[in-house]
């Protein structure tokens, strides 16, 4: 069975360009269109509606694109996958995992073979290379994440910008005047992952609004990385009394690193995190946190996709408001 990826390779273009050339939904140069059409003829490629199996019946399968890229925290990916599978099974659908790290070939394969009725896309980048294909193909989709340009897409996510602001607002309300953000691994920012970039924007905006001294640093995972970033922060910001962590596996190692450097949490340093609630509650010092609602996001994505499959209207972008839970890791400055 000839797939859109086969046509793309023969024509020397991307699968999304093939889709555009065949659908006419985007302007394509005459030379490119001729190459695509020649490849279609040579390979005997035939399109279908992308949302049904070759027999014409619904597949009762949803695809879940969970690219395993550098900097991805596997337990978080697992939480999203479990939530999607649970919600899909409740609606009599199975789930097909697509784990290819880059590009749109996996989504292209699903579109052309009819293996799935729709796709849920995770780890969304601000300028995500999968978007042209998602916009042009007939496979219904929902994104867990919001790209820079979300027109024509269905997206759901935590409002990460508001989450960053909420953490800073809480710390400023406790009297802290110097704050730091310890963020995701560097590669997450390099590929302009939407949720990470938006949290930095919210943190920076709130710090500016409150007139706080602030810095935002990416950080790897593990005790060595935690110790290095803690030492750097205390060296560069000697007045530091508050930290926001957006790096789930770093919560405990960072508390330990600051304690080893003579900073007690929360006596000398208040710490908040944006992470799943169980991680925050189980930390060596229970952490004040904004929860990442993986279960709710997965269920919402499935609900939206099922509605799209039924032809019902859905909102373009749904942002879940952040909720902060106070625990033992924050206290008034100088407490």
Percent strand equals: 15-25%
Summed up, the helix count is 13
Helix content: 40-55%
Terminus-to-terminus distance: 69 Å
User: By helix and strand content, what is the structural category?
Assistant: alpha/beta
Q: What general form does the structure show? A: elongated
Which spans have pLDDT < 50 for at least 5 consecutive residues?
49-56
Number of strands: 12
Average pLDDT level:
89
Largest sheet: 6 strands, parallel
Main sheet: strand order: 2-1-3-4-5-11
In sequence order, what are the helices and strands, one letter per element? HHHEHEHEHEEHEHHEHEHEHEHEE
Gyration radius, in Å:
23 Å
Describe the structure.
By secondary structure, the chain is an alpha/beta fold. Helices cover 43% and strands 16% of the residues. The strands form two sheets. Strands 2-1-3-4-5-11 form a six-stranded parallel β-sheet, sandwiched between helices. The termini are far apart. Mean pLDDT is 89; it is low at 49-56.
Fold topology:
Layout: H1 4-11, H2 15-23, H3 30-43, E1 61-65, H4 74-90, E2 94-98, H5 105-113, E3 118-121, H6 131-136, E4 141-144, E5 155-158, H7 160-173, E6 178-182, H8 186-190, H9 194-210, E7 213-217, H10 223-236, E8 242-245, H11 251-260, E9 270-275, H12 277-281, E10 288-291, H13 294-310, E11 317-320, E12 324-325
Parallel strand pairs: 1-2, 1-3, 3-4, 4-5, 5-11, 6-7, 6-8, 8-9, 9-10
Antiparallel strand pairs: 10-12
Helix pairs in contact: 1-2, 1-3, 4-13, 7-9, 10-11
């Amino acid at each position: 069975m000839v797939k859109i990826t086969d046509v793309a390779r023969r024509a020397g273009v991307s699968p999304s360009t093939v889709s555009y050339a065949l659908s006419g939904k985007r302007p394509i140069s005459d030379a490119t269109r001729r190459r695509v059409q020649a490849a279609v003829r040579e390979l005997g490629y035939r399109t279908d509606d992308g949302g049904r199996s070759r027999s014409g019946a619904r597949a009762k399968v949803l695809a879940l694109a969970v690219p395993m890229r550098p900097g991805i925290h596997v337990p978080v990916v697992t939480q999203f996958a479990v939530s999607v599978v649970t919600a899909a099974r409740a609606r009599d659908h199975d789930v097909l995992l697509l784990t290819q790290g880059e590009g749109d070939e996996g989504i292209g394969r699903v579109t052309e073979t009819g293996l799935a009725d729709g796709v849920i896309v995770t780890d969304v980048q601000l300028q995500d290379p999968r978007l042209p294909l998602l916009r042009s193909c007939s496979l219904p989709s929902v994104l867990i994440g919001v790209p820079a340009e979300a027109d024509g897409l269905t997206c759901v996510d935590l409002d990460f910008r508001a989450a960053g602001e909420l953490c800073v607002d809480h710390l400023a309300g406790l009297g802290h005047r110097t704050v730091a953000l310890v963020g995701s691994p560097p590669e997450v920012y390099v590929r302009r992952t939407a949720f990470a970039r938006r949290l930095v924007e919210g943190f920076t905006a709130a710090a500016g609004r409150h007139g706080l001294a602030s810095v935002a640093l990416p950080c790897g995972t593990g005790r060595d990385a935690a110790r290095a970033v803690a030492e750097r922060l205390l060296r560069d910001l000697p007045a530091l009394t508050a930290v926001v962590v957006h790096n789930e596996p770093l919560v405990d190692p960072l508390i330990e690193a600051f304690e080893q450097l003579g900073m007690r949490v929360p006596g000398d340093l208040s710490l908040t995190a944006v992470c799943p609630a169980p991680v925050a509650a189980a930390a060596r010092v229970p952490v004040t946190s904004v929860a990442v609602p993986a279960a709710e996001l997965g269920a919402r994505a499935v609900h939206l996709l099922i509605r799209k499959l039924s032809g019902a209207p859905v909102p373009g972008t749904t942002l879940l408001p952040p909720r902060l839970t106070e625990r033992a890791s924050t206290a008034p400055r100088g407490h």
